[in-house]
Amino acid sequence: MRHDHLISARQLSRGDVETVLDRAAEFDAGERAARDGDLLGLCFFEPSTRTKMSFDTAMKRLGGDTVDMGTVESSSVKKGESLADTVRVVAGYADALVLRHPSEGAAKLASEFVDVPVINAGDGAGQHPTQTLLDLYTVRENAGLDDITVGIMGDLKYGRTVHSLAEALTEFDAHQHFISPESLRLPRSVRYDLHESGAEVREHTDLETVLPDLDVLYVTRIQRERFPDENEYRQVAGEYRIDAETLEAASDDLTVMHPLPRVDEIAPDVDETKYATYFDQAHNGVPVRMALLDLMLPDGNGGGDLA
Amino acid sequence: MSDPDQELRVSKIKNGTVIDHIAASQALNVLAILGIDGSGGEEVSVGMNVPSDRLGRKDVLKVEGRELSPAEVDVLSLIAPAATINIVREYEVVEKSRVERPDVVTGILSCPNANCITTAGEPVESRFEVLDDAVRCAYCDAILREDLAEHIATD
Ligand SMILES: [Zn+2]
């Protein structure tokens, strides 16, 4: 497979995903790469310390290094520079760019202006494909990717990790259930894509009915600002909170995931159960991003297999 | 004078474009696509809800001194799929064509997503992939369906 950029999980075939996950498993098992001299440009137009740390760590573990455009406040962006100009400048210093931006479509736009690979690390409410890859890696490590039943719960309207994951799972033999309050169900465009990919979109307003069938439960945060008032938020969010007692009805093999940070949608008592996988999930970001960078960067051990 | 199409009382034009068989009541949206609001001084004749054998009712537009760009025809095809375009020179129709649904429309439409990067003053034209019954922003994936005419860029 050959991709110049990674903009959306939708561009990845099952084969592409497996290539990345297999390489990630090799890094996870201790394999080393020698990418000394390779530089990754970090373009974070909104703060996302975790994602940035994960890419920074991944690149350095590959033997390469990173250059960081700094915060928006300290850069030319503040003076009104366009994204197209900023990425053209930074691309001159780096062998690949990682882009995080508050506007949807930013990574796609950036990719049209530079000659180096662009990796989308989140564009507004849009795509966040590397999160998806680490989610898929975590699902594969824990439940496999064949004949699985996945429940995705919480804010499905604004949660980009959810949209990206749901789309990617359509490439696999996965049954998907979507559990959310009516006001936070999947947006029309996402439902359209899932239908187009041949997936059945099963939507529920409560977890109870589907929980026993699930191999994976992916929980996301319902944010206060999605609701007009505090009371309504408390009431609705409370219905989508899980604790150890909730999970008594679950299959023994259930894997509980969460993109982190969590607030209170997963009670701390779940951490002690065998279901809890969210910290492993977060750490999986490093080998997965190592794999992706190794495959997309030109002329190294990975040979630009994705580039 | 038995053909109702012939009853439309608009003057012949010398040089310009006649857009016929526009879906009834879409003529003003077509003018919006062309960026014509009268302020530019163009000579324009508009026929709305004119009887038509093919469409029952239709709109017709005659614009003096103006031919359509390919981008304009692309967007026109989305709101007036049955339209025919007649290019007139020296009072004669020199070219007659039906609109075709394109795969992609560039420019003219603006993205309905206010948070889309294409609405943020970047040096790019909007670009939409044409689906069966809608168009989708090539940048942010936002879908534009029945309210297409409201998203014709007016600048
Ligand atoms: Zn858009």
Describe the protein.
The complex is a heterodimer of chains A (307) and B (155). In chain A, 34% of the residues lie in helices and 14% in strands. Chain A is built from ten helices and nine strands. Chain A has a five-stranded parallel beta sheet, with helices on one face. The mean pLDDT of chain A is 92. With 155 residues, chain B is mostly beta strands. Chain B has helices at 27-33, 70-79, and strands spanning 16-23, 44-52, 56-64, 84-89, 92-98, 104-106, 127-130, 135-137, 143-144. In chain B, a hairpin with a 4-residue loop joins strand 7 (127-130) and strand 8 (135-137). The mean pLDDT of chain B is 88. At the A-B interface, helix 4 and helix 7 of A face loops of B. The site of zinc ion (ZN) has 8 residues of chain B, from loops.
User: Distance N terminus to C terminus of chain A?
Assistant: 8 Å
In DSSP terms (H or I, runs of 4 or more residues), the helix count of chain B works out at 2
The global form of chain A is globular
Largest interface: A-B, 21 and 19 residues
| Unreliable residue runs of chain A | none
Shape of chain B: globular
Portion in helices of chain A: 25-40%
From N to C, what is the helix and strand string of chain B? EHEEHEEEEEE
| Oligomeric state | heterodimer
Q: Please list the strands of the largest sheet of chain B in the order they lie side by side.
A: 2-3-1-4-5
Written as H for each helix and E for each strand, in order along the chain, the element string of chain A is HEHEHEHEHEHEHEEHEHH
State the major sheet of chain B: 5 strands, antiparallel
Counting helices, strands and paired strands, the structural category of chain A is alpha/beta
Mean pLDDT of chain B: 88
Nearest-angstrom radius of gyration of chain B? 16 Å
Terminal CA distance of chain B: 42 Å
**Low-confidence parts of chain B, pLDDT < 50 over ≥5 residues?**
none
